[in-house]
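Friendly challenge for the regulars: who can give me the structure tokens for this chain first? No prize, just bragging rights.
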Amino acid sequence: MAELLTENELRRQAVRALHERLGPVEALRFLALISREAFDYQKWRSEYFARYDIDHLLDEARKDEAPHGS
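First reply, four minutes later:
Bragging rights claimed.
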């Protein structure tokens, strides 16, 4: 039988999946909708983005930009 994920690992993978599928804004909206406890966005943001450097974040932001003109 497969080993269960820890709660922290489950949360991390779930947030990553939501972010990849919905994008950061819609993922956070979804989490706020289902959360029964207060969501500390500032704490989450600083923990989540601490692992990324600025170049990675810029590359991700550029991927989401809509094409200009055609």
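The two ends are 53 Å apart (CA to CA). The chain has one domain: 8-64. Your move, everyone else.
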